[in-house]
Amino acid sequence: DVKVTQSSRYLVKRTGEKVFLECVQDMDHENMFWYRQDPGLGLRLIYFSYDVKMKEKGDIPEGYSVSREKKERFSLILESASTNQTSMYLCASRRGAGELFFGEGSRLTVL
Amino acid sequence: GDSVTQMEGPVTLSEEAFLTINCTYTATGYPSLFWYVQYPGEGLQLLLKATKADDKGSNKGFEATYRKETTSFHLEKGSVQVSDSAVYFCALRTGNQFYFGTGTSLTVIP
């Protein structure tokens, strides 16, 4: 069974803290994605990666960075968390032009 | 640019009622169309898809037909169950990009 695993389901951080969100997939997919989900706004793409060490900005990359050192792992980094980054973060992966497979999400609250 | 517009919710239905969630799209080229479902506390799961005009995607009693002439991909189910309560997202893929609608929350009451 395909699996995308996000390391933390719920996080609470303080303004200015550095936050790491980890995502691992076991399907050998070359493409990985980070979205944020907010009520009334749907899913918005933050960053994506087509291959190891490669990254592309999505629609809302400001305030975020990513790291993909291994094919199965894609990390989202908030260098200095702010309250407007309180959100649900969803990781997804995909092989070629196929469907997206999502993790269960990481709900981040920044105080 | 490419985009998806879906009907706003929330939608509340009684068990065994008929469901329609409207979805229209704007895209250049020939997109693939998807419906994803998000159950409470979970990530999104693919519900069904269609890759070309007039294709019908179906799964778990849900159906949607890719209508190029009306640029639509409406989701339907003939008889909803309490277990169908979830948020439903319409999406399109062009090239390597996915575009999602804002989601429609469905609650089915016994």
**Unreliable parts of chain B:** none
Average of per-residue pLDDT values of chain B: 94
**What proportion of the residues of chain A is helical, as a percent range?**
under 10%
Count of DSSP H/I helices of chain B: 0
Helix-and-strand structural type of chain B = mainly beta
What is the overall shape of chain A? globular
Counting DSSP E segments of at least 2 residues, the number of strands of chain B comes to: 12
The average pLDDT value of chain A, as a whole number, equals 94
Notes on the structure:
The complex is a heterodimer of chains A (111) and B (110). Chain A has 111 residues and is mainly β. In chain A, 0% of the residues lie in helices and 53% in strands. Chain A has strands at residues 4-6, 10-13, 19-25, 31-38, 42-49, 56-57, 65-70, 73-78, 87-94, 101-102, 106-110. In chain A, the strands form two sheets. In chain A, strands 2, 4, 5, 6, 9, 10 and 11 form a seven-stranded mixed beta sheet that branches. In chain A, strands 1-3-8-7 form a four-stranded antiparallel beta sheet, with no helix packed on it. Chain B has strands at residues 3-6, 11-14, 19-21, 23-26, 32-38, 44-50, 56-59, 62-65, 75-77, 86-94, 97-100, 104-109. In chain B, the strands form three sheets. In chain B, strands 2, 5, 6, 10, 11 and 12 form a six-stranded mixed beta sheet that branches. A four-stranded antiparallel beta sheet of chain B has the order 3-9-8-7, with no helix packed on it. In chain B, strands 1-4 form a two-stranded antiparallel ribbon. The mean pLDDT of chain B is 94. Classes of the chains: A mainly beta (111), B mainly beta (110). The A-B interface holds A 4, 31, 33, 40-43, 45, 50, 90, 92, 97, 99-105 and B 32, 34, 36, 41-46, 49, 89, 93, 96-98, 100-103.
Quick summary of this structure?
The complex is a heterodimer of chains A (111) and B (110). Chain A is an all-beta fold and 111 residues long.
